[in-house]
Structure formats: C-alpha cells, structure tokens
Amino acid sequence: MSSATSTAHLPSGLSVLTTFPDVLFIPEFIFGGLVWILVASSKVPLPILQGWVMFVSVFCFVMSTTLLCLYICGAHGGKSSWVTLVFAFLATLMYVIHQVFSLRRWKSS
Length: 109
Known about the structure:
Blueprint: H1 25-41, H2 47-73, H3 81-108
Helix pairs in contact: 1-2
C-alpha cells in the first residue's frame, strides 16, 4: 500500500505527550510562559509594539493549548485533515493580517 493512500491516526489521551511532534507541546508551554514574562517586564519606547508582541504570544499560547486539549479529548476522531485545515487557515490568516497592517504603517511613515 502506498503512503498516499494510507491514513495516519492521530493519538488521543495522554499518548499525545509521547509522540513526535506532539511532544513539542511541552516546550511550547515553557517557552510561551517565558515570552510572556520577558515581554511583560521589558521597557520599550513604543508601547504599541509591546502590546502587539504580547497579543501574538498570548494568541499562539491559547491556540496551542486548544489544540492540545482537542487531541487529549480525542475530538479529532482519529482524522488529521480538519485539525490541519483549521489551524493552518488561522496561522495563514494571522500572517496576512500582520503583513497588511505592517505595510500600511510602513507606507504612512
């Protein structure tokens, strides 16, 4: 059977924390918390930049937590396509929004 026709089964429950790349959730939590601490405690000349960085880090942390909870609860039903599609779409959307507003700010300066 070719790899194109085989379907990958996603882990459920605590087995999520033992498979790669899902085991990367643990460092994401650790480094995500460190980013929050460092960004919140730093002094920057333009507070709007600090707010944007904090928003992005909090948003990514919440999305990672949501994805981990969905995996642990088994909400994916063993199918990977919907999870990849939802989170790939959201990541792309955030990149596009960020680029549009960055370009507008650059043009106006």
